[in-house]
Write a structure and sequence with these properties.
8 helices; alpha+beta; about 35% helix; Endonuclease, Chain A; elongated; single chain; 4-stranded mixed β-sheet; 2 domains; 10 strands
Length: about 230
C-alpha cells in the first residue's frame, strides 16, 4: 500500500474513531469536503450528513445506518402478507372487487356536501383571497350585469362568498335570491368543440330541478349570455 495512502487512512481513522472526536458542541466540520459525520451506534459505520443541523438531529435520535435499518426475517414475513387472506390475490382489472363499479348519485351528493363544508372551513389563503373556483373576470361581469339590470345577487367579488346550494353540494357563480336567478360564468374549459360538457349539463339540470330557477350561462369566449 502506498505510504501516503496509509498515512491518510490512519489520519482518517484517528479523526472519526469516536463521536467525541467527530463532533463537539458546535458540530465541527471535520473534512475538507464539508461533510458532517458520526458513527452508527450499532455497527460503528460512518454516516455522513450535509450540514451540522442534520448531524445534531441524528445524534439526538441515535440514528442508525441504512444497513442496520434492514428488517429482520421475522418482520419481513409479517410484512409479506402471508397471514393475510388476500395475500397473492391480484387487485387489478377485472380481479379488483371494485372493477366497473361507480358511486351512486346519493353517494356523490354526500361527497360533494362534505367537500363544500371543507371549502368553507378551510378557506384557501392565496394572494387573491379566493376560496373555490372563482374566475378572474367574472366579478367585473356580474358587477356590470347588476348595474344594467338592477339586480342584487350574491357573487364572490361583492359578497366575499358564493351561494351554496346545501342539499346538492354545489356552489354557483351568481345567485339572485329575489328573482331566483342563477348565472354560471363559463370559461372555455367548460366546452368541448363548442359544446357544453356533459357533467356541466347534468349539474345544471340538478340545480334547475332543485331551485325551480331561471338558469343562465355566460360564455366567456363568445361573450353570449344564454338562458337554459
Amino acid at each position: 500500500m502506498n505510504v501516503l495512502n496509509q498515512i491518510e487512512k490512519e489520519n482518517l481513522i484517528g479523526t472519526i474513531d469516536t463521536e467525541k472526536k467527530l463532533i463537539n458542541e458546535e458540530c465541527v466540520n471535520i473534512t475538507n469536503e464539508k461533510k458532517w459525520m458520526k458513527n452508527c451506534p450499532t455497527c460503528n459505520r460512518i454516516i455522513s450528513y450535509v450540514n451540522k443541523y442534520l448531524l445534531r438531529d441524528a445524534i439526538n435520535k441515535k440514528t442508525i445506518c441504512k444497513s442496520c435499518r434492514r428488517h429482520s426475517t421475522e418482520t419481513k414475513e409479517k410484512m409479506s402478507g402471508k397471514g393475510n387472506g388476500m395475500y397473492g390475490t391480484h387487485r387489478y382489472d377485472t380481479q379488483n372487487p371494485f372493477h366497473g363499479k361507480h358511486h351512486t348519485n346519493e353517494a356523490r351528493r354526500k361527497m360533494r356536501i362534505a367537500a363544500c363544508k371543507r371549502v368553507l372551513e378551510l378557506q384557501r389563503n392565496d394572494k387573491d383571497g379566493r376560496i373555490n373556483n372563482v374566475g378572474l373576470k367574472e366579478g367585473k361581469y356580474f358587477s356590470q350585469i347588476e348595474k344594467n339590470r338592477r339586480w342584487d345577487g350574491v357573487y364572490y367579488e361583492k359578497s366575499n362568498r358564493q351561494h351554496l346550494i346545501e342539499n346538492l353540494g354545489y356552489f354557483v357563480d351568481y345567485y339572485e335570491p329575489n328573482l331566483n336567478i342563477v348565472i354560471e360564468y363559463d370559461e372555455p374549459r367548460h366546452y368541448v368543440y363548442g359544446n357544453l360538457k356533459e357533467k356541466d349539463i347534468k349539474r345544471m339540470d340538478e340545480i334547475k330541478d332543485h331551485l325551480k330557477c331561471k338558469f343562465f350561462r355566460y360564455n366567456e369566449y363568445t361573450k353570449e349570455l344564454k338562458e337554459y
